[in-house]
Design goal:
The chain is an alpha/beta fold. It has 23 helices and 14 strands. Helix content is about 40%, strand content about 10%. A 6-stranded mixed sheet has the order 9-14-13-12-10-11, with helices on one face. The protein is globular, with a radius of gyration of 25 Å.
Length: about 625
């Protein structure tokens, strides 16, 4: 067994080495010390820029790229920001690989100064690129108990991203998720223990930056201890400076020690650190409403809270720059989120963020208006040119560290050899399999005998896609063709529930699987198990069936159904985790994961029931 593991690690290490994975495209480690020539380029470039050009560098445009004709509205809009506004970079959201690689080269050719091209790649490329697979989430990586998997994931993500023109990973999430009701961080965090989060975040950063991409620790100073999503409200984390130093800031310290290139701010209020009141909730214009990420707030319009961290000098400069000694790039979280845009215009928010100490404004709902606002603030003396220069120098140093001043284009012939390389996919599968955590199996249902069992699978989901667990069901049926499968969602009627239960009662199964696809999602506002899902769970439990409950998402699901005789946590909703769960159910792989979070009143941090792989 040890020889097999060593062989696997050797293959993965070879697959992830720059020489093996890219051949013609090799990348210097991002965290290397700049050479004299690099320093000269930074100095000369800064000197050559006009004030307006330097202000433009402090903005990050955004794009969703499927296929853009050069005469299309989408291309021309971004062309305007690159050519006229001289933005410092582009943030890529839901897109496709080859169009992005082609577009990234086009953008770089248009830019006077090389562009930072960023994307949120916390869970592999699939998180933003529709033609690539999602990897297991951070919490699953931590459930393996070994930071080497975070390091390898960082390397793999960096090499694939750089092959398609993305040079800045908006990852890892470095928040400590110590609030079970957190609706937006949840499995994006490595867990609730600050030291564990720090270790895994540091490993990811080291892996990715050694492979040549810049990383970004987020969301400073910590978005873990809140039940409000900053996409649709302004969370309040009412804790002291001492608490921050002993908990939330530990992973960020580790990230800074690992020479992380960027830190992303959080749109959260910390009233014990920043006492200045935030502006009141305002009425958005039609244009602003169309550009924001929310349609309604989760907070009262009368609520008075303090300045969001993104706009707070005490947090961005005091805590991050002065106390933690961070000298890299501070980027805002998206400025069209309710935590900011419900209270401030694009111009007001950009000006306040720069005054607070931010270097780069991400996803402003109106870049033109925001740039005009910053120019006006400089003209009035509210922001000095020296302050602008300091941020632009940091941005230029990041671009030099990425070697963009020498090589800003990617080889399009390399994209389909590096991205989705089967060796990377093997790594993703292995992490998902090692992450599976069995919390309880009182009836000893696992492993299920594939040949001799009558299996009934019921999926409950609050997703729009009722076929969300199809990969899981397909894998079950590969092993047992007689598997019966049904799906219900939050819209299920009483008649549908009754018909399903009647079918179950008449089928006399030897194993019942209740697969729950409920996950944290930006803008959703809650990770609670909907009433229909709770009702189904209660019906299954009271029948005293040979039951296996699987959570494909929220790890805190057992808190909603504490009487279930079993829980298997897969953490992720995507195929890589579904395939792993199916293998585990039938004993094809061992189950050895450990809880990266505690389940209050049920199980402690680090708990997990081990089930050995079955011999064939």
């Amino acid at each position: 067994m040890k020889l097999k593991i060593l062989a696997f690690l050797f293959i993965v290490a070879f697959a992830l080495s720059p020489s093996a994975a890219t051949q013609t495209n090799t990348y210097l480690p991002f965290d290397r010390k700049l050479s004299k020539k690099d320093e000269d380029w930074v100095r000369k470039t800064l000197k050559s820029l006009t004030l307006d050009e330097k202000i433009g560098q402090m903005f990050l445009a955004d794009a969703n790229v499927v296929f853009w004709n050069r005469e299309s509205e989408e291309f021309k809009k971004l062309q305007h920001h690159i050519v006229n506004n001289k933005v410092g970079g582009v943030l890529v959201f839901r897109s496709e690989v080859l169009p992005t690689a082609l577009s990234a080269n086009r953008w770089q050719e248009l830019a006077k100064v090389p562009l930072l091209i960023a994307s949120d790649l916390e869970m592999g490329l699939g998180m933003r690129f529709d033609d690539t697979p999602w990897w297991a989430p951070n919490m699953a990586v931590a459930a393996t108990g070994d930071v080497k998997w975070a390091r390898l994931q960082g390397e793999a993500t960096a090499l694939q991203a750089r092959a398609m023109g993305v040079n800045w990973l908006f990852a890892p999430t470095s928040d400590v998720n110590n609030n079970p009701n957190n609706p937006v961080i949840n499995v994006r965090s490595f867990g609730e223990d600050p030291a564990t989060v720090a270790g895994f975040a540091k490993a990811f950063i080291e892996g990715a930056q050694t492979a040549g991409a810049m990383t970004c620790a987020k969301h400073f100073p910590g978005h873990g201890d809140t039940a409000t999503d900053s996409h649709i409200g302004l969370p309040v984390v009412d804790v002291s400076r001492e608490r921050l130093l002993s908990l939330e800031l530990i992973p960020f310290r580790a990230a800074i020690e690992a020479r992380v290139g960027g830190v992303m701010s959080a749109h959260i209020a910390l009233p014990q650190i920043e006492t200045e009141l935030a502006a009141s909730v305002r009425q958005l214009s039609e244009h602003e409403a169309a550009a924001t990420e929310f349609r309604s707030l989760t907070e009262s319009s009368a609520a008075r809270v303090t300045l969001p961290g993104t706009l707070s000098p005490k947090i961005m400069t005091g805590l991050l720059r002065e106390d933690l000694k961070f000298n890299g790039v501070i980027v805002t979280d998206a400025m069209n989120m309710a935590g900011i845009s419900a209270r401030y215009t694009a111009a007001e928010a950009a000006v306040k963020a720069i005054k607070a100490g931010v270097d780069l404004i991400e996803k402003s709902p109106d870049i033109d208006a925001a740039i005009a606002g910053v120019k006006d603030a400089v003209a009035k003396g509210e922001i000095t040119e020296a302050r602008i220069n300091a941020s632009v120098e940091r941005l230029l140093r990041a671009k030099a560290a990425l070697n963009l001043h020498r090589q800003k284009l990617v080889d399009l012939n390399e994209v389909d050899r590096v991205v989705n390389n089967p060796r990377f996919m093997d790594l993703a599968e292995h992490i998902a399999e090692r992450s599976l955590t069995l919390v309880r199996d009182e009836q000893k249902v696992l492993p299920i005998n594939a040949a001799g069992s009558k299996v009934f699978n019921l999926t409950f989901t609050d997703e729009d896609d009722r076929f969300i667990t199809k990969p899981f069901v397909d894998e079950l049926r590969k092993r047992n063709e007689t598997v019966e499968h049904f799906t219900l969602d939050a819209r299920a009627t009483e008649a549908e529930i009754s018909r399903l239960l009647a079918k179950l009662d008449s089928s006399n199964p030897t194993a019942v699987i209740y697969s729950v696809a409920v996950r944290a999602r930006s803008g959703k506002g809650s990770v609670a198990l909907p009433p229909v899902g709770k009702r189904l769970a209660d019906e299954l439990i009271k029948r005293r069936l040979p039951l296996v409950v699987i959570s494909f998402g929220n790890p805190y699901l057992p808190l909603a159904i504490p009487d279930s005789p079993s829980y298997l946590l897969a953490y992720g909703l995507y195929p890589v985790s579904q395939r792993a769960a199916a293998k585990a159910l039938f004993g094809e792989i061992e189950i050895a994961g450990k809880l990266p979070v505690s389940l209050p009143g049920l199980y402690p941090l680090g708990h997990g029931v081990k089930v050995e792989k079955q011999s064939r």
